[in-house]
Amino acid sequence: MDTRTKELLAIRPEIPSAKVTEFMSRDEKFQNKTLRPVIKLQNDLLIEAFRNYVNKHKGLFYTLSLPKRLNYIENAIQRDIKFRNSLKGMIIGQFTVEEYTTYIENSSALNKRMMNTVIERIKDQVQLLENENVA
Q1: Nearest alpha carbon to residue 13 among 33, 29, 27
Q2: Who's near 110: CB < 8 A, 6+ residues apart?
Q3: What is the pLDDT of residues 81-128, one digit of tens each?
Q4: I need a labelling partner for 48 at 20 to 30 A (CA). Which of 30, 74, 115, 128 fits?
Q5: What is the pLDDT of residue 134?
Q6: Could you tell me if 106 and 26 are in contact, meaning their C-beta atoms sit under 8 angstroms apart?
Q7: CB-based contacts of 10: which residues, under 8 Å, 6+ apart?
Q8: Do 105 and 23 touch, CB atoms closer than 8 A?
């Protein structure tokens, strides 16, 4: 195992609920073994990237009700291709070469899992985005 791989794996948080079993699909194993720990590791950066996205879009987000904010998060990540690609890059950049090789074999399905996880993570932390109206 090369130094980069060792160091990447060493800094990832452990997620006790992210068990990997023999009965899981390959994509589900990848999600639990790689995606969830990397997304958790990158959490602060993902939140800051979303905050920057909101501010670049005139801060409309801060004027919305909670249900509309949750919808805004989902729409921003699903519909803004440049923003979505930026988030994907923050995550993929933390993959080992072996993980990247696995990822590119089924990137479409894994991208969907990745973005759904990011959406849920940001929604769960929507309170961190309060009173940030710095336009």
Answers
A1: 33
A2: 27, 30, 31, 35, 103
A3: 999 999 999 999 999 999 999 999 999 999 999 999 999 999 999 988
A4: 30
A5: 46
A6: yes
A7: none
A8: no
* 8 A C-beta contact, residue 46 and residue 87: yes
Q: Is the pLDDT of residue 131 over 80?
A: no
108: which residues sit within 8 A by CB, 6+ positions away? Answer: none
pLDDT 10s digits, 34-68:
999 999 999 999 999 999 999 999 889 999 999 99
Q: Tokens 């390959």 sit at which residue? A: 26
Pull the structure tokens for residue 9. 């794996």
* pLDDT reported for residue 20: 77
Largest CA distance in the chain: 49
CA distances to 50, 51, 75, 123 from 57, rounded to whole Å, are: 11, 10, 13, 18
Neighbours of 11 (CB within 10 A): 10
44 vs 101: CA distance, rounded Å: 26
Rg of the chain over Cα atoms, rounded to whole angstroms, equals: 16
